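pasting for the record
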Amino acid sequence: EVQLQASGGGLVQIGGSLKLSCVVSGITFDRYAIGWYRQAPGKEREGVSYTSHRDGRTYYADSVKGRFIMSSDNAKNTMYLQLNSLKPEDTAAYHCAADRNPSWSFHPDYEYEYIGQGTQVTVSS
């Protein structure tokens, strides 16, 4: 059984930082691309970042490029998302995901093979 469990969300002020973690079981990162998406109430799902197991590169949505950093620890089967310079529009539930497709789309309609429950990030002034 594949499970993804995200944690680390919270309430943070504008310009602040948070680090999210996602522990994954049931798959290995050498066979799956891993990444994050977010969804705010009343808004479409938005892909945030992913690391491709094909080329090892990490890709970011334009909305977070330069502010968010994704990393992973293969030995721990854990991925991370460092959120910096947070803005109110970053407020959302952040979910981790995994997919054998090595090339993801950040389009709201993209269907991930495995997803986890989200962790809430709230950015306040």
